[in-house]
Amino acid sequence: MKKTLIYALLLFICASSLTACGDSADYSDTYNPATDYPYSFHEQGTGIHTAISDNGYYFLNGSYIYYMDKAAMKPVLLDNRPDTDCLHETGADKSAACNAYVNKEDYPGFLAYSDNHLYTIESRNVPGKNNENAKRFELIELAKDGSSRKSKLTFDFPPDAIAIHRGVVYYSTKDFNKKSELEYKIMQYDLQSAFAKPEEIYHGNLPAGYIADIIPYGSHVYFLEPAKNMYRTMQYDIQNRTISRMFSEDDHKNSTIQGIFNDKLIFSYFYGDPDDQQAWLGYSADLDGNQIAELPIRRDFLSNFYASGNYLFSRPVWFYLTTEKYQHIRHEMSVYDTNYQLVDKFDLSFLPLDHSFIVGDADYMFVRYKQGQTNMIKYANKKDIGTGHVTFQTLLETPDN
């Protein structure tokens, strides 16, 4: 009888944890849209404000989640109760009164879709020292229709970067306690294990360092680590649990990943001078950061690159938009095909300096920005690429609330 109970307990543990009894993790480098981080919707920093399911998109715009069916292309608030008026709710507990509301306060926002659930980050006040409230941030799991939510993970400090990939949360944290010397880390947390605890996978020690970006792909977690007078790109090998630096060991040769195209990493170097022609080049590498090759694209200025499906996109970096010296450089996007041939250009001069371009999926691309007190999302149809008539149309206008 005792052996039977022990065996039953072991079966329960194995069923509850992916790693307790054998390793069923996916270590392939083949992209699986059902489980993998949607890298083409990535935004630097907290990572992503758009979640993708089989049939539609979810958007976090301002403090509200919207759902949009791909066929209808008409976003609706994630609360279908007829007696709810989310955007005009004034009660103290807005999340109880409106399923679509996210109490993110001053956090930039995060939204992801994984295993038929939505995930976001909310803020709440908890009792602190000297009868003062302390702020805590939580990873919240929502039903995909918004009807239920529960806390999955509590952060002592808000994550600078976060991503969900193959059922695991990867996030960065920086300890602002005076005794901590502002140490920073990358943690992982298994959403699929009943017994999971946050586990440290990287401990940074660069002066004034932090983690600015996390981009998982296949068996890799790439991250950007800025520090005093430099930045570098690193990778965590999920299967071997190892950390390595990518592209160069030279601290004067700053590098950052800008996209994934044709199963290659697209990245660039920066040497500190925007007029250095070497910095105008783009490069590709394999997923380990090897086999580095110069892109066959001629650019006469520093560029940002974006990649999605059959297209590589490139535009001037934001720095040029702020300086009179570079006024001759047009704020427009160039589009290249898989052979790196220019196939189109489209105007982006309508965007304010502070905005996000989301290269999107095979169908649509998006831009997010703020216009006064209104949070804007616009979209463009990729079917128009090659016609010379790519235009962005308003998708969402959400007031601050």
TrEMBL record:
Keyword terms: Signal
Signal peptide residue numbers: 1-20
Protein name, per record: DUF4221 domain-containing protein
